[in-house]
Design goal:
Length: about 300
Amino acid sequence: MYFTRLPDNTKPGFDEQLHFSKFKKNNIIFNAVSSYSHCDYHVGCLSFKTVLSGEEWYGIDNYRLAIRPGQFLILNDDQTYSCAIEKGEKTKVLSIFFKKEFASSVFQDILHREEILLDNPIVIDSKTLEFFQTLNNIDSTLQIQLSNLISSLNNNGYDSCMVDEQLVFLLQHLIQKNKSEIKRTKNVSAIKPNTRMEIYKRLCIAKDILHSSYMDKPDLNAISKTACLSVPQLIRQFKYVFHATPHQYLLKIKLKRAIALLKHSDKPIHQIAWSSGFENVSAFCRAFKLEYGTQPNSFRKII
């Protein structure tokens, strides 16, 4: 199923139960533009979330994170969450909800040997993978897959056969990225695999807070409390896994935002400094030169 508008649960006569019942029976794609949307409570199926412009906020467990262009989030089966697009700038949303049986068939195909698939070509294992529910960057392969999907939908409309084919390849790529995340847990300083996995999940919460709230001067004590890690443990393990302390990582997020604005906007330097979360132009220019060896104005002239 394909929707070009987000549901309006405040509309008179909106049947919320009927609407959400479709999510268990079909693959569903939302390719929509909205300047305001709000859902306080939803228990979803496996889903892929990204935005092509603007930002969308999600509430998972006890924290909130923002999805911005170039990022994606995967939510697992039966995950409770809220989502919101605040009033203001229009946000272009791309959300894909995978029917459980469809996702299970892709998992079975990629995780089992060919001889096992031959013996049971029809029987689908109901088990699903558990993805890391954390912000990820969209790589070039995923970007091409998403662009092709959107182009096909815009030019040819919804064709279930065409869409299902593309969703198979999309899920396969996401599974491979999840495998890479699992390998990354080995960087956690702990002996037991289960402990490493749990610490990694909590570090991802801290990482997502930094990405989502870099404009609000995230507080280390508040982050450690939300991630359920002590401040020393958070700093130590964060550096093991992400090769930077939380403060250093936050600075890289701000500078990456500044680079994007220098490349793709004509905003003056003082506005770029503010839009990237820096307190003033001087702090921005010092950090920029230390990282890239040149001043922002000089960088803009050579790109």
